[in-house]
Write the structure tokens for this entry.
Amino acid sequence: MNEKKEKPKYGWYVKKLIITCIILGLFGISLFVLSFLFGNWVRFFFIIVGIVVVLFFLWPGFGMALMNIIITKNLKKQKEIEMPMVQESPKILDIGCGTGRTAIKIAKDLKNGGYLYGIDVYNKVAIGGNSLETVKQNARIEGVQDKTSFGYGSALDIPFEDETFNVVNLSSVLHELHIKNEISKALEEAYRVLKPGGWLIVGEWNKFSWQLICYCGVFCFVFKDHNFWREIIEQQGFGIKAQLNNGGFYLFSAQKPKN
Ligand SMILES: C[S@@+](CC[C@H](N)C(=O)[O-])C[C@H]1O[C@@H](n2cnc3c(N)ncnc32)[C@H](O)[C@@H]1O
């Protein structure tokens, strides 16, 4: 019998926003077309409204859809994250693990008996199908259920003891906290649960990178620039060891001092 292979479901980032943007954007295009049926002023008005709608909706709609396809392709190449070398059985915490897109990739790359814990609040609409059930199912399908466990937990109050982990990963999560105090609090918590000499990995989009402008258009202002991330990580006492620009997505690796 031809058994269908189960596939993991990582979902699309901001799926509902993409659909809304594209629908509104198509409305903008129809205004362009309709403008030819009317006289000067109405035509001018329709064209201006059409341009605004295309800029604010159609561009980001298609751009973010493209971003999702590129992210999935990158993931297949498995070159997205460069984990720092941790010698023996690293204990890793992935905060804001979502459907496990990054967490499961890290777990797959673990070759030296390590273990990964993933936590998420699962109350935001960042990814389509974002839930604890989805991430657990994805881990099982990808064959990493023996070296991972996932649960509810907030970046602002991490449910683990002090100095538990060798690595803490925050991939595309901190920008969702919006308020600077909350970002600092999340980094303070990451510092607390890391062992001395432990590593922090932060991945965030850079506001004015051409890639982000292609994806989000005018919405690139929602993001912060890479200097902001660098400074706020250093302010929490971490020493930045490497900074990598991976297609507009910046990866920082930083270390907690070894006492
Ligand atoms: C853009 S998604 C990134 C998911 C995943 N890290 C990845 O690389 O695909 C952001 C995730 O952060 C989670 N999140 C937002 N605020 C959080 C918080 N305060 N604590 C834990 N997770 C949070 C959201 O629920 C969402 O799953």
The chain has two domains: 15-76, 81-255. DSSP finds seven helices and seven strands in the chain. Residues 13, 95-98, 101-102, 120-122, 124, 126-127, 130, 154-156, 171-173, 176 surround S-adenosylmethionine (CB under 6 Å). Residues 40-77 form the longest helix (38 residues).
